[in-house]
Amino acid sequence: MPRYAKAKAHANIALAKYWGKSDKELNLPAVPSLSLTLDAFWTETSVHFDPKLSQDSCLLNGEPARDRELARIQDLLDRVRTQMKEPCFAHIKSKNNFPTASGLASSASGFAALAAATSKAAGLPCDFETLSALARQSSASAARSIYGAFVELAVGIPGDYQLAAQPLQNQKPWKICMLVASLGYERKALSSTEAMQHSKHSSPYYSAWIENAPLYYQRVREGVLKNDLQQVGEAMEQSTFAMHACMLASIPRVLFWKPATVAVLDALRALREQAQVPAWCTMDAGPHVKILCEPQHSETVANHLHAIPGVETIFHCGPGPALSFLEES
Ligand code: PMV
Predict the structure, then answer these.
(1) What is the pLDDT of residues 244-266, one digit of tens each?
(2) How many CB atoms lie within 10 A of CB 329?
(3) From CA 182, how far away is CA 167, in angstroms rounded?
(4) 190-209 in b/e burial notation, b at 16+ Cβ within 10 A?
(5) What's this model's pTM, rounded to 2 decimal places?
(6) Which residues line ligand 1 (CB under 6 A)?
């Protein structure tokens, strides 16, 4: 029986955002989401089940995982172990080629790669649907990182532990570019799960978000199917700002933005309205701004934003591939 496996998954950024859970235990999303898997950001994870080990251990980017990280990893391992004939502890090694836990979607690629490597090492089925459902229970956005390019994740009906993401059907290849303007690499104080539960329980705008998010998703979806950047961009910005407004109205407020975030948003709008450069933004639970544009405009946008104080790096990303398994190295 195989005991070792290694997998590689790419991060994704939602164009139509997921925020809020319909079932906390099973980690089911309360709204549908649609994402773009990114070629430039990935996680590689190896899992080795070893009967000689007396506990699980995990190295993330060469450092022992922190307690909270290890607890989330063990949660996934435990779900897999319940299906193993001879369960035992595991040693995990994981490496990101981009900053971890700072709002750049490392939990998406991280849990997708972990779900795949753990299932394979345990000798369990590794079809993408099963892996996506397993990853989703740890991080809903991770369900989308099993697939490449444009991916959607439906609303979860409470109790549906098999909910998985799906590649967007009938998508035309679209050479779109996502620029990631990184505003520093500090770890975020609040995880996405903590922040979304907090907005669910204290934001008066949470119900408005739940009501409107499916409309933004529909518009993003139609726009992607038509390769219509303006439609996608406008709906993506609505989805983003409605999600952040919902967080901001929480008590106490949740605000991931920095002054440079606002400077980037203003500069991007000026570029679009005054210089007619078609580019739109999205943001997650972090200060960074991600910009969607055609490849022929990416240098102009990047040069313009790079000049803003507080912008550290601009990463250029395109549509990325689905999950893959790697040989032992
Ligand atoms: O999957 P989580 O728990 O990391 O939450 C992701 C939440 C957002 O990144 C803000 C939105 C999304 O759809 O990815």
Answers:
(1) 999 999 999 999 999 999 999 99
(2) 6
(3) 27
(4) ebbbebbebbbeebebbeeb
(5) 0.97
(6) 14, 17-19, 33, 107, 139-141, 192-193, 284-285
- Report the 10 Å Cβ neighbour count for 154: 16
Q: Which atom of ligand 1 is nearest to the CA of 243?
A: 10
> Ligand 1 centre and the CA of 53: distance in Å?
33
**Residue 328: pLDDT band with limits 50, 70, 90:** confident
Residue 43 CA to ligand 1 center (angstroms) comes to 17
Q: What is the pLDDT of residues 74-133, one digit of tens each?
A: 999 999 999 998 999 999 999 999 877 666 778 999 999 999 999 999 999 999 999 999
Q: Please report which helix (H) or strand (E) contains residue 28, including its range.
A: strand 28-29
Q: Output the CA 289–ligand 1 centroid distance in Å.
A: 14
285 phi/psi in degrees, rounded to 5? -85, 70
pLDDT category of residue 190 using cuts at 50, 70 and 90 = confident
Which residues lie closer than 8 Å to 156 by C-beta, 6 or more apart?
21, 22, 23, 26, 28, 29, 30, 163
* pLDDT tens-digit map of 43-90: 999 999 999 999 999 999 999 999 989 999 999 999 999 999 899 999
Atom of ligand 1 nearest to the CA of 17: 13
Structure-token pair, residue 75: 């949660």
Question: Identity (one letter) of the amino acid at 258?
Answer: K
Q: How far apart are CA 288 and CA 266, in angstroms?
A: 14
pLDDT band of 2, cuts 50, 70, 90:
low
Atom of ligand 1 nearest to the CA of 142: 1
Cα separation, 211 vs 229, in Å, equals 24
Residue identified by tokens 């989401």 is: 33
Residue nearest to atom 5 of ligand 1 (CA): 192
